[in-house]
Amino acid sequence: MAGTLRVAVVRFPGSNCDLDAVRALDSIPGVAPDLVWHEDGAVSGYDAVVLPGGFSFGDYLRGGAIAARSPALRRIARLAEKGVPILGICNGFQILIEAGLLPGALLRNTTLRFVCRWVAVRVENDRTPFTRRMKKGQVMRMPIAHNEGRYTAPPAELRRLASDGRIVFRYCDESGEVTRASNPTGTSQNIAGICNKDGNVVGLMPHPERAADRVLSPFDTEDGALLFASLLRRE
Amino acid sequence: MSKARSFSVKVVISNREGASDPEGETIYRDLVSKSGYSQVRGIRSGKFLRFEVAAPDAGSAKDLVARICDELRIYNPAAHSITVEA
User: Fold this and answer.
1) Chain B residues touching chain A at CB-CB below 8 Å
2) Domains of chain A, residue spans
3) What pTM, to 2 d.p., does this model score?
4) Residue B39 structural domain
5) What is the tens place of the pLDDT at every residue in A58-81?
6) Do A108 and B22 touch (CB under 8 A)?
7) Contact B55, B4 (CB under 8 A)
8) CATH of the structural domain A5-229, one choice from 3.40.50.880, 3.90.1150.10, 2.60.40.1840, 3.90.1570.10
9) Which residue of A has its CA nearest to B71?
10) Per residue in A137-184, pLDDT tens?
11) At A144, which helix (H) or strand (E)?
């Protein structure tokens, strides 16, 4: 179909949010998702790529560290250079970091616990291909579910991310205030998501695919759908 | 011709100095310190890997493992440091 945006959702052994991502994308008119096995070369032919959440390769060594060396990531790195939108969700974010497509590290939560709950995040950058249908300052409801989501980077890198507008989402309270109490994992500067220099590679810990349908949200929201709908430019 | 022997190379990955290490801090504070071992000044947690490597000598086994750790990103230099010992 002309005008259809084709999106690859890359599945690794241990991915478990892949089908949710496909479903969330499929519900956006004009977006056609495919599930692509990480060892297939097919990923190169798509208009956008989503690395879903889960526990790729059992999270052995570190979340995302082994998947980052998959042949799919070499192809994805080439797509990223060409400006193709790439989204990493949770484990997908960890993979993008381990592959060097995003800077820094995601360490174990300060609580040393797997944190699984709905959070609020504030949109800090509404110019990426995954946030352009949002407004800066908008508060989004999405769940998080992870053990290693405490973003960190050397102090100079953190300053650069902030000054270059590359922090995409920050954990906040219901009114949109970024507070210590609203930081669920001890992550630096309440960072929930970042992007690369060109803005086309975005990683976030919250799960938009689990927040894209009102039936799944305790707040009767579908904020997550906005990330996927953003792939289509506003007319 | 010298025959390659097998060497055991030990790699410890830990959070970089200055990066908070909640696991090490908890073991230190809530187990060791609270049990009265005031001589212990701090604990850092880490991950341990032992590589079995065929190499002509211990030095080259260690060099190879150090290279692998960098190349395959066995550690994330943004947050971790490693020690490699043959």
Assistant:
1) 15, 19-20, 22-23, 26, 47, 72-74, 76, 78-80
2) 5-229
3) 0.90
4) 5-85
5) 999 999 999 999 989 999 999 999
6) yes
7) yes
8) 3.40.50.880
9) A69
10) 999 999 999 999 999 999 999 999 999 999 999 999 999 999 999 999
11) strand A139-146
